[in-house]
Amino acid sequence: MLKKLILLALVLLIPAGFLFASGGGEKSNLMAIITPDKDNTFFIAESDAAKAKAESLGYETWLAVHGDDPNVESDLIDTAISKNAAAIIIDIANADASPNNLRRATEAGIPVFCMDREINVTGIAKAQLISDNFQGAQLGAEYFVELMGEKGNYVELVGKESDTNAGVRSQGFHSIIDQYPDMKMVAR
Predict the structure, then answer these.
(1) Does the CA dihedral 21-27-33-34 come out positive or negative?
(2) Mean pLDDT across the stretch 26-53?
(3) With the C-alpha atoms ordered 76, 66, 50, 115, is the resulting torsion angle positive or negative?
(4) Cα(73)–Cα(39) distance, rounded to whole angstroms?
(5) How far apart are CA 31 and CA 51, in angstroms?
(6) Which 3 state secondary structure label does DSSP give 106?
(7) 187 phi and psi, to 5 degrees?
């Protein structure tokens, strides 16, 4: 199901990029696809879906992983620029550092499309395909509270501090769960 949703989103997202990519200087036939992790099934699915869609449109693909490291991401952006990529599709490394990395690509005339993680700066990405992590966490928390019978101990699993979405999800969960005094977080 997840792979189908990502593929559907990319079907809508990628063609818009090629309208932008065709303007400006001579571009290669290369689509750079940069994701955070090669072991997480979510990131594998988004990378595979982007690759399949780009190749179905006649583009060659270059897949890379930044490992949530803005410095690695910076090097990968520079590589995409040096390869004169037609566009970059990226799941960013860090909400604070990534806009500076992506700005270099935009200034080089390479359109950038963000997926999953959002940058909070306008004028850099042509489009951002993100999920509503706050609402999703609220829906999950409502179901969790229901399953727990509105009481019980729980442990909150959190993501990396550099992942803005992890913090947003935590806020969403707490906006619901904290309303139930018999729900006790015992570890985080």
Answers:
(1) negative
(2) 92
(3) negative
(4) 17
(5) 8
(6) helix
(7) -160, 160
